[in-house]
Amino acid sequence: MIDLQRDGAIFTLTMNAGENRWNTTFVRAFAEVLDEIEGSEGPAAVVTTSANEKFFSNGLDLDWIRDNDAGADHPGGDRAAFGAEFMNVMSRIITLSVPTVAAINGHGFGAGFMTAMCHDVRLMREDRGFVCANEMQLGMLIPPPELALFKHKLPANVFFETVQLARRWTGPAAQAAGIVQQTASAENLLDVARARAEELAPLGANRKIYKAQKESLFGENAAINEVHGAAWMLRNSDKYRH
């Protein structure tokens, strides 16, 4: 379901569950891999990709969610546990203690797009595939934590087009909009992503600091969410010392 390989400083996390739809079973498999990464030592970075050439991740497992007969013994797992566990895994990705690179080699819809946006750097296939927050098309509201993620990561106009108008972004359009940092051919995408990860891996040598900075950006009382402006914070810098 989730394959993790390490080559030197680079972890390659490959989702290999077909369309990589998110259910509780998939969430728990992903969490186990994050445990392994966080338990490692030394300079490191993670590249996340998919074994499926068409889908990076096709979002929520809608058939499982809509199956009224699905119990805790369903292959998709316990639906009652899904929401909290899924959001927790997303929070772990966005604050992971090593650099993360998403190599989006196929469609990334809904929860799959959210997964990519939780990474530090995103690369996308240039010739095929879309990323899209498609909740509006599915008749679903985007939860406030997910909206906050997109708001932090996207320019204002791109944010609105993404979450309200459900725009499907191709690789080149996503790069121009600032959603992804780079595009590459299908054949070269993983190599380019690994090369970028190699550049970033030294930042993961001090796991505590790398994670703490992410918490300052995205965690409780994050600096970018402060009610006071930068000038006030500078005048009262003693209140912000670590």
Summarize the structure.
With 242 residues, the protein is α/β, with parallel strands linked by helices. The chain contains 11 helices and 9 strands.
What does this structure look like?
With 242 residues, the protein is α/β, with parallel strands linked by helices. It has two domains: 2-202, 2-enoyl-CoA Hydratase, Chain A, domain 1 (Alpha-Beta Complex); 206-240, no CATH class. Helices cover 42% and strands 16% of the residues. It contains eleven helices and nine strands. The chain has helices spanning 24-38, 62-66, 79-94, 111-117, 135-138, 144-153, 156-163, 171-177, 189-200, 207-218, 230-235, and strands at 2-7, 10-15, 45-50, 55-57, 100-104, 107-109, 121-125, 131-132, 182-184. Helix 1 (24-38) links the parallel strand 2 (10-15) and strand 3 (45-50). The termini are far apart.
Topology:
Blueprint: E1 2-7, E2 10-15, H1 24-38, E3 45-50, E4 55-57, H2 62-66, H3 79-94, E5 100-104, E6 107-109, H4 111-117, E7 121-125, E8 131-132, H5 135-138, H6 144-153, H7 156-163, H8 171-177, E9 182-184, H9 189-200, H10 207-218, H11 230-235
Parallel strand pairs: 2-3, 3-5, 4-6, 5-7, 6-8, 7-9
Antiparallel strand pairs: 1-2
Helix pairs in contact: 1-3
Please give the domain count. 2
The helix/strand order is EEHEEHHEEHEEHHHHEHHH
Oligomer: single chain
The CATH H-level homologous superfamily of the largest domain? 2-enoyl-CoA Hydratase, Chain A, domain 1
**Poorly predicted spans:** none
Secondary structure tally: strands: 9
CATH architecture of the largest domain: Alpha-Beta Complex
The average pLDDT score comes to 93
Q: Please indicate the percent range of residues in DSSP E strands (runs of 2 or more).
A: 15-25%
